[in-house]
Design a protein that fits this description.
By secondary structure, this protein is α+β, with helices and mostly antiparallel strands. Helix content is 20%, strand content 14%. The chain is built from two helices and two strands, in the order αββα.
Length: 69
């Protein structure tokens, strides 16, 4: 599922809007990660509509907050 989401999102971070380099891998802070718009800990789902590509650093900084669209 992550690869499908990353392609759908055109390798653009849903949190900062900058491109994500597909060649970078975890634990590089600029690597791709799967962000839940509504975090699982806040009742969000693991459905395609609730996930987006995010840089690992952006995702960690967001934590379990729900950001306005």
């Amino acid at each position: 599922v992550p690869a499908e989401v990353f392609e759908r999102d055109l390798w653009i971070c849903g949190l900062c809007g900058d491109p994500v380099d597909p060649a970078l891998v975890y634990p590089d802070p600029q690597s791709a990660s799967l962000d839940h718009r509504i975090p699982l800990s806040r009742g969000g789902s693991h459905d395609l509509e609730n996930v987006q590509l995010a840089h690992l650093r952006c995702n960690i900084a967001k934590g379990n907050r729900i950001l306005a669209p």
